[in-house]
Each structure stands twice: as structure tokens, then as C-alpha cells.
Design goal:
This protein is mainly α and 63 residues long. The longest helix is centred in the middle third of the chain and has 12 residues. It has a domain of 43 residues: Erythroid Transcription Factor GATA-1, Chain A, CATH 3.30.50.10.
Length: 63
Amino acid sequence: MSKRTCPICERAVLAREENSAFPFCSSRCQLVDLGHWLDGEYRVPGEPAEVADSGIPSDSSEG
């Protein structure tokens, strides 16, 4: 079995069965990662979504 490291602090990570914060080493690192997503530091590549004039994404099923 390969040794896993935390993507935030790079410390050793316990197996999923022993660690409720998996794949992170702790809940602290889990929250740091969530903060990165919420601040927009992480992005999923793709085409930008179309936005209606109201600022709400358009729904093509409405009519």
C-alpha cells in the first residue's frame, strides 16, 4: 500500500476507515481546502456559462 500525503500540508494521511477528514490529514486542512474553493483559487476548466440580463444563469426550458 502506498503512503498518502495531505494535499495541503503534505503530512501523512491515515486510511479512510481511521480518518473522517480523508483525503486530508485533519479537519483543519479540510477547511483550508474548502476556503481555497470558496475564494476562487481553484477553478474547474470549461466554457463560461451563459448569463441572462438578470445575472441568473439562463434556463432554456422556460418559455
